[in-house]
Specification:
The protein contains eleven helices and ten strands. By secondary structure, it is of the alpha/beta class. Helix 1 runs parallel beside helix 11, helix 4 packs across helix 8 and helix 5 crosses helix 8. The longest helix is centred in the middle third of the chain and has 39 residues.
Length: 407
């Protein structure tokens, strides 16, 4: 029963870490005064460290860690200032956190390679884009207008980047997943039947039979997804504007009422964000993926559940992370700024990044030393079929070969 519950066994480790690895925990202070924590594991004699970081997930026990240690590489796993928390995740702050880890590892004398899995790939691409710019050309604010100190942040580039099953970015991914049939943002059960992806009249078939949506519905559906994001953007910007006006009023007049209004949380609740048509219609952007989404085998059910991307978000976090229309952290936009040697590694059964995405990423990446590979596996490194090798083990072999050629 436990193994079938939502989120159980998402990552599975198939080997043990080798003996003789020195493990230490480090608290780092970022350039803007925040604190972040990382775990450094170093086999005897290792001079190269692979970093694993994700903007919103705890990666200390990522399944590739023991593989990399067995290869003889050190591993640095680090969180942002808001791990496992979508509520206030600002990508502009997350890359400042990323920088603190790179500075620490450089100060220790290591060669450093970045490994970004899933959303960690876009985080790394965003970091490289900003790090490769002259400091005065870097972003100065978040999409909501909050100042960020990228110009005053030491941002060393890694020696190379590994992008494992990178999706197009949190916002771009959410726009694929968001259910446009929601008619009332305060009612999780509100639905426009003409846009309902799970309405048989629109082409849905009960699981596990693959659905079949026609081109007209797909075009209308995706346009409506963008429109829902646009409406949520408008709400978020109105929240931000009200808070900023209240803060200005407090600074000029000193009225505590204005300060309370500025401080009051303005949180977006975003229902139904597990509705990518490709998860139930396997003919769309085909690969070897199984039926179902990142959150379960029944998107027609999990779409209505608590677990999902961007379920609760401040207005600032929505604009920085979850809005495809406002975020600065979209893989294709950031990819030209990735000029260090790069491995782009695809899982052939990915449920979040498709062959069409990998082709676009390949074309956009700025690295002249670019290797593109694929191995069988699902998005989190599971096997394509029962009893087959895990995607994690196959990815590890490819990564080892690439690192040996570049270290």
């Amino acid at each position: 029963m436990t193994a079938t519950r939502l989120g159980a066994d998402r990552y599975s480790t198939t080997i043990d870490a080798p003996a003789g690895v020195a493990t230490s925990v480090h608290e780092l202070q970022t350039s803007d005064g925040a604190k972040v924590t990382g775990v450094l594991r170093v086999p005897r004699g290792a001079t190269t460290v692979v970093t694993i970081m994700h903007p919103r997930q705890e990666v200390t026990h990522h399944p590739l860690v023991p593989y990399l240690l067995t290869m003889g590489y050190g591993v640095w796993t680090q969180g942002t200032r808001s791990p496992n928390n979508d509520l206030n995740l600002l990508h502009e702050q997350a890359i400042i956190d990323f920088a603190a880890g790179l500075v620490f590892l450089r100060d220790q004398g290591f060669d450093v390679y970045s490994l970004g899995h899933s959303g960690g790939g876009t985080l790394a691409a965003f970091y490289c884009q900003q790090a490769s710019m002259p400091p005065h050309s870097r972003l100065t604010t978040t999409p909501a207008g909050r100042p960020v100190v990228l110009a005053d942040t030491a941002m060393p580039l890694p020696d190379g980047c590994i992008f494992l099953a990178p999706h197009p970015g949190q916002g771009a991914l959410l726009q694929r997943l968001i259910d446009p049939s929601v008619t009332d943002e305060s009612d999780p059960l509100s639905v426009d039947p003409d846009l309902d992806p799970f309405n048989p009249a629109n082409g849905f078939r009960p699981a596990p039979e693959s659905s079949s949506y026609d081109d007209e519905f797909i075009t209308r559906y995706r346009a409506a997804q963008e429109e829902r994001v646009r409406r949520l953007d408008a709400t978020a910007r109105a929240y931000v504007s009200d808070a900023q006006q209240a803060n200005r009023a407090f600074k000029s007049g000193g009225d505590a009422t204005d300060r309370r209004r500025a401080l009051a949380p303005r949180v977006l609740t975003v229902f139904r964000t597990d509705a990518d048509l490709r998860n139930v219609d396997l003919s769309l952007d085909p690969n070897n993926r199984p039926y179902g989404s990142l959150f379960g085998r029944r998107p027609d059910l999990t779409n209505y559940g608590l677990v999902g991307f961007a379920r609760l978000s401040t207005a600032e976090a929505w604009l920085s992370t979850w809005s495809a229309l406002s975020t600065n952290a979209t893989f294709l936009d950031c990819a030209p700024g990735v000029t260090v040697p790069t491995l782009l590694l695809e899982f052939t059964g990915d449920q979040a990044s498709y062959p069409i995405d990998i082709a676009a990423m390949r074309a956009a990446l700025g690295a002249s030393d670019l290797s593109v590979r694929s191995v069988p596996g699902t998005h989190f490194g599971g096997p394509i079929t029962k009893g087959a090798p895990t995607g994690t083990s196959l990815a590890a072999a490819t990564i080892e070969s690439w690192l040996r050629d570049h270290c």
